[in-house]
Amino acid sequence: MKSAIRSRKGRKMKKISRNGRFFFLALDHGLEHGPSDFTETTYNPEHIINLSTKMKITGFIMQKGLAVHYSENFIKKVPLILKLNGKTNMTKTEPFSAPIASVKDAVKLGADAVGYTIYPGSEHEAKMLETAGKIESEARDYGLPLIIWSYPRGKAVKKPDSFESIAYAARVALEIGADITKIHYTGNKLTFSDIIRIAGRCRVITAGGRFKPESDLLKEAKDIMNAGAAGMAVGRNIWQNDDPVGIANALASIIFDMNFQ
Ligand code: FBP
Q1: CATH 1.10.150.530 given to domain 2-257
Q2: The pTM is what?
Q3: How far is residue 15 from each of residues 11, 76, 93, 228, measured CA to CA in Å?
Q4: How confident is the model at residue 260 (pLDDT cuts 50, 70, 90)?
Q5: Quick one: how far is CA 154 from the chain centroid?
Q6: Which residues are catalytic?
Q7: pLDDT mean over 64-91
Q8: How remote is the CA of residue 29 from the centroid of ligand 1, in Å?
Q9: Which residue lies with its CA nearest to atom 16 of ligand 1?
């Protein structure tokens, strides 16, 4: 127990948090979904990357390619969270997120944390868990926090959005040793607070999901934080908004400034 607590403290969480909470901008969709998520304005990654420095975020999630090509635009102003694996949505086979960057790459690129996706329930779960285990050890050696995207998926997972599936996925992230897990919101404050308890000392943040009206997004953010979440990581609902900085900072006010019971 003691050594687990020590190693957890060894991770440099401060750089990616404010008031103990997290708010990350996600822009790894170019790989995950392709250009269909973007518009003529956002096709060029530089547009959002440059705006990120005006957002009250505590981390910017991207794949290695964007970090390699654009880090000079934001590094030292916005903490980098390097996503170490990914997949396209062109294949319709059992989900597998392939490693495309290493913890060493993250260190060389000046990252402040690393992110890794697992799909609990997939036929390829074993491979993803094995790599997650190695990444957890390496990230700990470098003092880098590990964020696990834990999305239950695959043909064996009949109800990926159910309480049971999401709770199990969150717990898997704790068992791997993740500092933070990024999961989908259940849509219900009460069940979500149970999930947060099930994840224990692994902090829980949520993905933004498909674009939704601002009022729905802000209400959801309040509910998620009220349930006891540690923050959010949002992509499309920020950069598909006509005012990405405005909506990001409205979310930041909820995440960082509001008191939740
Ligand atoms: P959003 O906030 O846009 O939902 O992004 C969250 C995210 O997890 C991204 O990090 C990732 O690129 C994408 O969703 C994966 O989407 P999918 O659910 O289609 O696999």
Answers
A1: no
A2: 0.95
A3: 10, 11, 38, 21
A4: confident
A5: 20
A6: 151, 182
A7: 97
A8: 7
A9: 32
